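Case study.
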Amino acid sequence: MYFYRLFRLSVFTLCTLLFYSTAYGSGLLPVNVNNDIEIALGKSKVVFRADDIIKIKLCDKYYKSEFFVQTGRKSDIRSSSGQIVYKQEIKDETRNISVSFAVTFEIQEREIKAATQVSVDSEDYIIKEVSMPVPEFYYPDDALYSCYYPSGMGKRVDNLENLGKVSFNYPGDHGTMQWCTMNNAENGVYIGTHDELQQPKAFEIYRKKKGVIATELKMPVHSDRFQSPAMIVRFYEGSWREAARFYRTWYDTGFRIVDSPAWLKESPGLMLNILKQQNGEVIYPFSEIDTIMHLGEKMGFNLLGLWGRGVGGHDRFYPNYMPDPLLGGAQAAREAIGRAKENDFKVVTYINGKIIDVSTDYYSYYGVEAVMLDQRGKPYIEVWKKYENISPVVFAACCPASGEWQRKILELAKDSYMLGADVLYVDQVSQVDPNVVQCYAKHHRHKRPCEAYSGGRVELMRNLRNYMTGLDEKYQVIITEGINDSMLPYVNMFQGVLYSVHEPTAFPELFKFTFPEVLGIVSNSNPVLDRYEANYNVVYGLKNEIMTRYRGDRKFLLGGAVTGQDYRNVTGPPDINKLMQIERDQAQREVKAIFEFVRKHTQYLNHGRFIDEEGIFVKRPDKNIVVKGYKHNTDNSVAVMVWNKGSERVKIPEIVINGYQLKTSYKPDGIPGVEEGYLSPNTIGMLVFDSN
Amino acid sequence: MAHIRKIVPGFLVLISTLFSPAVANSDSGRPDAGRPAGKVYELKTSEATLRINEKGELGVFTTRSGTITVNSEIKSLWSVVIKNRNTGSAHTIIEQKNIEISQEGNRIFLKQKFLDLKNGRIPIDATFTVSIAEDAFCFTGELSAGSDEWQIRELSYPILARVSTGKEKTTIYWPHRGGERFEASPAFGNRTFEYPGMNGSLPWYTITTPTHGVYLGVHDPERGAKKFSLQYSQENNSFGTNITFPVYSTGFKVPPVMLDVYKGEWYTAASFYRQWFDKHFKFPEIPEWLRLNSGLMLFIFKQQNGDLMWKYSDIDKLCDIGDKLNIKLIGIWGRGPGGHDALYPNYMPDAVMGGTSEMKKAIKRAQERGFKVIVYTNGTIIDTSTDYYRFNGIETVALQEDKKPLMDNYVKNSNTTPVNFAITSPASPLWRQTMIRLAQDAYDLGVDAFYVDQVGVREPYLDFNSLLDHKLPQEAFTKYRYQMMDELNTYMKNLNPSYGLMTEGTVDAILPTVDIIHNVASVNPNSFPDMFRYSFPESLVLQLNSTPALSRTMVNFDMINGFRHLIHSRYSPDVKYLEKGIIPTAADYGELHINYPPQLWTMNQAAPEETFSYAHRIIEFENKHERFFRKGKFISSEGISCKGDDVEAKGFLSGDQLGVVVWNKNLQAERAFDVTVQGYRLTEAYQPEKQTRDDTKKIAANSVKFLVFEKVK
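After joint prediction, the assembly is written out as follows.
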């Protein structure tokens, strides 16, 4: 029996369906006198206005000028069974340009699929960007709708009346999936593209007037022909999770998410250690791997990150990562990694998948092959300056569709493998927004500038995965920074899916429910994790992190007290106040206890499935109570995680799952102040339900 | 003395609105036109009246004839951007409240004690004044935040909502790259310029009608940073304008902003500014050889991609080219191991080109043949791949507010890895010292002049590098840029008074500290170099010409505007053109993946021998008439009547004589012309191309004539 069902249909909906199916069958289409297309569900409706059917931006072939084509209002409109096509041919005599477009709407039941085709005939101009038809969502006054959109792990605007304008650019850190939804817990509208090429696109959701939300979708083109993927606008009943499931169902028809080894799923997260900093300061030589292992063991981390192993330290001289003799050299690095593995640790080594230091020989000799060029033929410059008193280190961004850069990344993967690493960390790759960062170099593998960080990035990561598993089938784990769903078939774990657990608009449920098996690390640039952070990560099914980046961090971890003086000249220190105030040993003990708790319930929390709150009814929940469910890996039981994130104790609320009964409950060991029937401030508990 | 106080807007405003006769007709520009005389604040210059009425409306209008009006409102005469240092929140306050107005004689005071935010108010002590100075309206003032908690980031003042010329023909003179002229307001649109910098060569602009003009300029002895904005509104056929000053402090004193409504042509505006300039600044003693010099042959010896085009020993060939052109100054660019635009600030002579000793010998040989030699350095950028950047960058580069460097790059070949530069800060003592060391290095090679690239080009960037000399971010590229050039020029002149200093970028703020400027304005329909040249006729300016050919058109353009001539030899096909007379094709540059080749028409306009020969003859003519072309005073077309299609005439004063260059810009057709000068009589007419005397009736296509007039006594 399914725990939830797809698209439950009400009597009203059936009547609506009957009406539309009759109308379509008779050739009657929902077009009004203005040629606008309209579909409705109850009191809400979606309208595509005939005067907002398309926007076409052209540019000259040298990218010096750009302008919108004046499309006019009067399209040639043709309809056939279930389909309406708007066509126009436009001539610009002054510029000697001929543009034609066709926008096709397929109208089925409660769903409209829109697709756009544009061509330009000109010697001097190409299509730079096309905007798809704009769906306007009219919602009733008496229903409270929220907007859910996939920036990062997800964001939610709780009331559409509060929505001014939000946007997300896919695929990148701020556009991790290609859909969004407006939902009032009973029904909603899904807007998305089912684009198997995962091309770049920019969504903008804004309030057009009271009661009306418009969603604009722009796609970069850079060609004289354009065929858009289908944009789908669909009414559905139920919560936003129905929309997520609808997207996931489509996703699974074209993509397969990489399967990660059990040890990675069970790992609590990453203990990131910078061995040498950008200014040359050594924090740990390779020989101190035992110290790192000791700290990892103390806190419960088993995945050790060795960053800054090269001569330039962390964030200098990339792509040179050869082990620094000052740290002990290659032999010492191999021995250190070997020793860690013998002690049941896994080791991840760092490379940057995007940037190279412009002062390196590699940049001088291969830069022209590897780097991205902007519209003016100039490199994309990125600067990292970690200390006030050092010259900023200047990097250029590389193009994932460059054959040379792909070759270099594979070479670096092999170098790491030869050192004995279990995991390769490829920094920054998944973050980049291809709608903004486009490569105009002519000699790379991309045909169009916007393909560099879409198709090119996919190719890079696919080739990397194949290459690594070809070296050794156990060498299969890739971590990168940022997240987007085009990377899921190739990357095992994503770092920085959230940059703080205190981000007020974050709604990580959106991505986690859509892709529950995906492993994401919440970034934490402190050398310590507190209980609140660890609880958050357990409840939302995310991974943990601590970072040791500076000598001050090392001092803190080894038992010393730190002050601002320990971070003098550091431009981005950890939260020094936190380090000064926290009870370090106690925090480490508590976090380790929480990790142990997760390990104990691994079939739910590591191998099970995140179901958010679906089917879980909480009676009179306190505002500080967070409830999230996990389905067991092999049986039908459900574990409900309950977290009191407030500062007062609260009674554990009554929780009901239809068709299930409460079997037992658990709490982490070693957390002080735990009382039966209550949750103390900032504590978690688990209620396990068996199916009847 | 009457001391009138009033608060606007307030209940009095309401009363005046309710009980006053009809509100002023905004078209008239007179804020109280049509109403009985009431309590107004008024200032008068010889040409215009400034009035603030009971409603707080400010108007400026010509007192007698003329259609120019300026209108604004006191409540929006300034705007302030402030930031809370504790919270980091920034606010822009564009509408002011609680302004007290008073007048004492020829000075109107506008006082404000609070800035009103959405959620409260901030104490501020602001007194803005409008007064009469130099027979113009002078806007100045002082403001300071009530506490250190608040940083004033920017002040815009005055904000003049509507500058109107009525229905008269309107021309805008705009100081972008030495000057631009727009003869239609819609074509001007919305523009800004930042002074000091190449794109803001002068701190003023003017709008004219056939009889009058309005001048807006800042007479700031500190030569501080400021941004001028001028926006044309088609809707009401008028302009909005304002000046924004960076502050980044708790207080600021507004330098005098002069609004002058004048009778006459734009020359009046230029002269008005120049008179003020002369009260505060002095031109340097420019070496005589440089004043008499005809121009520069710029040779890149080695390019950014390593392409070696000349060795030092090839200098004899360069002298031969100079003889053909009649240009006696050889520029050695790209002399270092990195070639041109790589590995800066490393300019040590490259061993591949012959090394130091060979270079010294070559320079000496050129000098023995009567040539002067200038070598290149860049005064504003360093290559981020150098040791200098790595080890000294933090002490020399300008940083943005996020502490990242300001970056720049020049990608010369599409098949070469781009070279990345960081922009250096003149507020760095180490950088200033580096420039002096480089000048000494060049002097030790035996050169006659030192080229410091881009110093005049840069806009007044804000520099947040706290390790340097400046206290405020806007001082780096103003106060310390002048200091850098002053220290450098002084050092060079102490080495040798005839050691010449040249930089790139036309901007008046550096004139007191350099000998010659390399202008970077390209020639386009709006180019109007007269604006800078007329304001500073004694300045030496080389006109940009990034091609090896000194085409007939360019020679004529240079001659009529009083520019020194320039050729660029940058790529291998340029070398072939200069050495062997082979005209390059687009493919020649394309094969080398050159991103910015020279304009081919400059080489195709005529056979190379003819191009060389024409330049030689014109320069010879100029040299012969040096009293006009090298030492005369450029007067643009002031007082010169020139009739004839496609023909233009500009003059050079020398004592009682006026030399007038007449140029037929039509490339195909001969043109008739008639040039007269009021108060002067024609004494001689020449055809410079043939070095002979000539008539004053017709002029051949793309040719010049030179007429000498004498003042009638």
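Observations recorded in class. The longest helix of chain A spans residues 403-419. Chain A touches chain B at residues 358-360, 363-368, 371, 373, 377-379, 381, 383, 385, 388-392, 394, 396, 442, 571 (CB under 8 Å). We will return to this complex in the next lecture.
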